[in-house]
Amino acid sequence: MVCQAERTADVGQSPAVRDLPAIDWWTMLADPVFLESPYPELARLRALAPVHHDPVSGVYFILGHREFARVSKSSAMGRDTRLWTGGWSSPEYAAEDPVGFRLYSQFQPQMINSDPPDHGRMRGVYEPAFHPQAVAALEPMIRAEADRLIAAMPDSGVIEMIDAFAGPLPLRVLRNLFDMPEAMDDDIARWSAALIKIGDIMMTPEQKHDALDALDTFKAVLRRHLAERRGCPHSGLIGRVLVAEETRVLDEEETLTNLVSMLVAGHETTVTLIGNGLLLLLQNPREMARLRADRGLMRTAIEEFLRVEPGGNMILRIAREDMEIGGWRIPAGAPVVGLIGAVNRDPLRFRNPDVLDIGRTANAHATFGGGIHFCVGAPLARLETQIAFDALLDRFSHMSVAGRAEWRLDRINARGLGSLPVQVGAA
Ligand code: HEM
C-alpha cells in the first residue's frame, strides 16, 4: 500500500479533525495488548472523532455507528479493490510485493471485491442458496453434525471447546454445502487456515506463499469436483454454480474464486461467533441462566454475541468518488476501513454498549456489514449458531470456564479464540 499523505493532506478537513493527535495506527492495531483487550482504546479514539485518517497508509478509519452506516451503504463507496490508488492491484504494489500482488490478483474476481454490475451478476448466483427456505432445508444436516460432535464429548470434565466443537462444526457444514467427502476435512481446514490471513497487514511473505499454494490447490480440487458433477442432476449451492457456468453467467475464474471465498468467508467467522458467544455466556452467568430459562431468547442472544464480540474487526470500502464524512473529504481511490469493534459499541447508538444483554432488541450491529455486500451467508451463520447453542445447553446443565480462554494474537482483522477450556457437567 502506497502512502497517500501527499494526496489527502489538508483536503477539506474541518477544524475538529485537523487537530486530532497523530496515531501510529498499524502499530497500535497489531499491539498484543490492544489485541487482547481492544475496546477501551477503541472507545477513546471514537470519543475523539468518529472518523480518523492515517496519513502513512492513507486509510480512513470509521469508528462511529452513524458514519459506518452511511459509508457501508453509499454508492460512492465501492469494494472493487482495483480502484484503490496504490493498493493491491496497482503497479506500485506489484513492484513492491510481487507475491502479494499475485495473491490479490488471483483472489480478485469475486463478488466481495466487485462493484455493480459485476457484483449483482455474481451475487445473483449464490444468494438463492442462502434464502430462508434453502437454509431451513440444511437444518437436519447441521443438527446431525452438531449432535455427532456433542456425542463424542465426555459427560463431565474439561473440554477444549474450540477444538472439539466451535472449530469443526462450521467446517463440516461447509463441506456438506460443497458436497465434498468427509475425508477432505483436514485438507479443507488447512486451506482455510492459510487463506484466512489474506488481507491481514501482519501477513508475512511465507504466509503469502502458503495462501497462494492453498488458493491454487483448492481451485484445482474444485475444478475437478465441478467437472465430475457436470451433466448430473444436482441441487444446492454446487447445482446453482454449475448452472451459472453452463449459462455463462460466471466464467471459470469467477466460479472458482467465489467458491474459495465462500470457505474463507464462512468458516473462521462462524467458528469465532460460536467460540466468542460461548465465552460471553460463560463470563456472564446471569445471561447464561436467562437463556437456559427461555430459549426463545436465542435469536436476540446471537445478535448480541455478534455485536459485543464481532469477530471480523475490519470492513473495507474503496471510495469510488469523493465523499464528505465526519469532517473529512475522502478522495476517490482511498481505502476506508470500518473498525467494527468500535462501531458496535457506539454509545450514540447503543444503550450500555459494553453490557451483554441477550434480550436486546433493535440491535443494529454492523458485524455482517451493510448495503449491497451485506453478508450473503448470514442466515446460515445464524441458524448454525442457534443449533450449536441448543445442542450445548441440552447436553450440559453446567458449563464454566476452566483455566484461561486465549485470544488469538496473530491477526488484526479478526478477533477469535485459540483456546476455550470449559468445565462441563451433564444434565
Ligand atoms: C458469523 C459469521 C459471519 C460473519 C461475521 C460474516 C461477515 C461478513 C462481512 C462483514 C461481510 C462483508 C460485508 C460488507 O462488506 O458490507 C461478508 C460478506 C460475505 N459473506 Fe459473510 N460472514 C459470516 C458467515 C458467512 C457464511 C457462513 C458464508 C457462506 C457460507 C458467508 C459468505 C459471505 C459472502 C459470499 C460475502 C460477500 C457478499 C457480497 O459481497 O455481496 N459469510 N460476511
3D architecture notes:
The chain contains 22 helices and twelve strands. By secondary structure, it is an alpha+beta fold. A five-stranded mixed beta sheet has the order 1-2-8-5-3, with helices on both faces. A hairpin with a 2-residue loop joins strand 6 and strand 7. It is globular and about 60 Å long. Protoporphyrin IX containing FE binds at residues 72, 111-112, 123, 261-262, 265-266, 269-270, 273, 311-312, 315, 367-371, 373-377, 380-381.
Placed side by side, the strands forming the largest sheet appear as 1-2-8-5-3
Q: Which compounds are bound in this model? A: protoporphyrin IX containing FE
Largest sheet: 5 strands, mixed
Helix amount, in percent? 40-55%
Specify the CATH class. Mainly Alpha
Structural class: alpha+beta
CATH superfamily: Cytochrome P450
Count of structural domains: 1
Q: Gap between N and C termini, in Å?
A: 54 Å
SS field, number of helical segments: 22
Mean pLDDT: 93
Strand content: 5-15%
What is the C-alpha radius of gyration, as a whole number of Å? 22 Å
Q: Identify the overall geometry.
A: globular
User: How many β-strand runs?
Assistant: 12
Unreliable parts: 1-10
CATH topology: Cytochrome p450
What is the CATH-assigned architecture? Orthogonal Bundle
